[in-house]
Hints:
CATH topology of chain B: ABC transporter involved in vitamin B12 uptake, BtuC
Radius of gyration of chain B: 19 Å
Number of helices of chain A: 9
CATH class of one domain in chain A: Alpha Beta
Distance between the termini of chain B: 40 Å
Mean pLDDT of chain B: 92
Low-confidence stretches of chain B: none
Strand content of chain B: under 5%
Number of domains of chain B: 1
CATH class of chain B: Mainly Alpha
Number of strands of chain A: 10
CATH topology of one domain in chain A: Rossmann fold
Oligomer: heterodimer
Amino acid sequence: MLCAKNLKLTFNPGTPIETRALCGLSLEIPTGQFVTVIGSNGAGKSTFLNAVSGDQWIDEGQILIDGEDVTRLPAWNRANRVARVFQDPMAGTCEDLTIEENMALAQERGLRRGLGHAVKAAMREGFRTSLATLGLGLENRLGDRIGLLSGGQRQAVSLLMATLQPSRILLLDEHTAALDPRTADFVLNLTARIVAEKKMTTMMVTHSMRQALDVGERTVMLHQGQVVLDVSGAERRGMNVPHLLAMFEKVRGEQLSDDALLLG
Amino acid sequence: MSLFSLFGALEIGFIFSLVALGVFISFRLLRFPDLTVDGSFPLGGAVCAILIANRWDPYSATLAATVAGALAGLMTGWLNVKLKIMDLLASILMMIALYSINLRVMGKPNVPLIAEPTLFTLLQPESIDDYIFRPLLLFFIVVVAKLLLDWFFSTQKGLAIRATGSNPRMARAQGVNTGNMIMLGMAISNALVASAGALFAQTQGGADISMGIGTIVIGLAAVIVGESILPSRRLVLTTLAVVLGAIVYRFFIALALNSDFIGLQAQDLNLVTAVLVVIALVIPLLKKRLRGQKGV
């Protein structure tokens, strides 16, 4: 379970470019729930995700994962609880390392790393099996540098890597945004399948309202560093993109410009 | 070139293979531009020479020199990781600090090792001449160092260091304490360089405060030459390339300085180095252009 309490964060405080990224954001995600997060540019989506992963420390507030206070833990020390897939396919993998070395790194996520061989034969078999489920033929390319793969392939491998070790929460940061529409669909379907299979507590940030309603079981909208909309269950099932837009306008009492939110 | 100067080139080539391996770890694996080596190379020489001059046995003296280098590297890493000083600047600060430290260690600008025992005199069998035995022993040391590094960088910890250099954000997301990995990598890198300094002092008859000048250039030159004669992404081959690079580099230097018809002298060493590095950097470009002309 993830519990964010009254998170506050201001970039460049006291200067002309002061930005209040998080303004008392609170959100609770029960174990096993798949939440999609939407919001316009600068709403605080990525900052919130970075705060949960530890890449960004917050000024005020508290972050609990399964009841444990992780607010002051650095990113590497949260890795046993938090798995993540980045927006940029280049960011989630090490391009200089081979596919199997990348996967071996993820296999040991959050564990103590010693002087044992990083890639063991038994491990390799497991990698091969899980890569085969992708249907991309990567199971025969374990020794290839991951930099040789396309963005979509790398994102699919990143997703697999995020599930090699159990985690308390999976963070997906617009992980299909940099891909072409067909590949994006493939990665999204893969996401839905893996999350359902492993029953992972998941928070997925997306720019697409369509995606936000299509996958997961709950949708949260952020605006100016706060949660402004939180729908789930029957209410969410009856919703479509225009509904979502209308609700957003009602909540904020202001008109949205077309470029502020991209319709998917 | 005489047989004698060939063995001499090999001897120094093997010593700088160790330097090149160290520079490879910092510049290539960690992507940390580290100039500490200009200080840790003479540090190794200074510690080793002063200890031997004070009746330590050469094994312990060489080991102590290596540990001293590791500490210097650790310190550079610490300045960068904990005090958030820019990597290049942290290493420059450490380099100039080491100049004073090296003078303090030796107590004077140089410590000669003429009659004192060294690793080489202790291990040398009666039947082999010293100018042949020194490169032989150094060859053995370099092979062991290369294999040890190959093994280490394929372990979980070694992989974590490589990931830290390649993509620190991803490494952190996988639970790697990237700060510690930078400090560990820098320690290993400078330990290698200092051990090379210790061996250099023992083969060249002593340590000198100015023996470190240009170490980084020679190390980088070796890495670049190696990468251009044996381009590979596989670590086992890259470490081999780096070792070969140092030897090829020293060989060409010896060739250039020993060929009377070119008319180069010892003071032209740095110029030859610069020209060699330029050639090594240009070769891949020329190769590409030649292939382009063939329409591939």
